[in-house]
Specification:
Strand content: 5-15%
Order of helices and strands: HHEHHEHHEHEH
Largest sheet: 4 strands, antiparallel
Radius of gyration: 19 Å
């Protein structure tokens, strides 16, 4: 599937075929592509929790407004991120770079992030969003449907997946074969409404 087709035709699938399995190699390929998404300072905050335990899926469904996608999709990924990744062996993110450049970048991280919890959290959300888009577009190319999800109790999800205290849950991604075609788009804004030139002034 060409990229423009994948972008224009991507839809959030609401009804999955619960008898369909996803090829293991396809799932791994999706994660590999997600790992090539951009992250600030190459920190790679994302941690993808693949939910294969059926009982855990049922438990997650209960804290996610009983959405059938949780249990019906072939795969369920919980996209989480490490808020403190910036201070955990930061040299590993630049081990293949020029040593002097890597040293300079690592030296910037502490001043940039320390004490700024909002920025730390924002970076994780941005990174997971980039990775999620890679997964969603790639899923379409490989013949699967996908649905990003935020309708869940984050504290309950954190308990169920034993999330470390310095991580956050960003979203779910349900992936599989669609059982029903998605509804038409509700309506896109006009280009003039979203493309602004040089700011918001008149």
């Amino acid at each position: 599937m060409k990229l423009d087709k994948a972008i224009y035709e991507r839809r959030s699938i609401k009804h999955f075929d619960n008898d369909a399995d996803m090829d293991e190699a396809d799932l791994i390929e999706l994660i590999r592509r997600a790992m090539h998404a951009p992250t600030s300072f190459n920190i790679q905050h994302w941690r993808f929790v693949r939910i294969t335990d059926r009982t855990l899926r049922e438990q997650l469904r209960k804290v996610s407004f009983d959405q059938p996608k949780i249990t019906d999709a072939s795969e369920l990924l919980v996209l989480t991120g490490d808020i403190k990744a910036w201070e955990k062996q930061p040299s590993q993110y630049w081990r293949n770079a020029d040593p002097e450049m890597g040293k300079q970048i690592v030296g910037i991280l502490d001043d940039f992030y320390r004490g700024n919890e909002d920025l730390q959290r924002d970076e994780v959300i941005r990174s997971c969003a980039f990775a999620a888009q890679n997964i969603m577009l790639s899923a379409g190319e490989l013949g699967y449907g996908c649905c990003p999800m935020i309708g869940f109790d984050p504290e309950a999800v954190a308990r169920l997946i034993q999330l470390p205290e310095d991580h956050i849950v960003v979203m779910f991604l349900a992936i599989g074969k669609e059982r029903e075609a998605p509804r038409p788009r509700g309506g896109q804004l006009n280009l003039e409404q979203v493309l602004l030139e040089n700011g918001f002034g008149s």
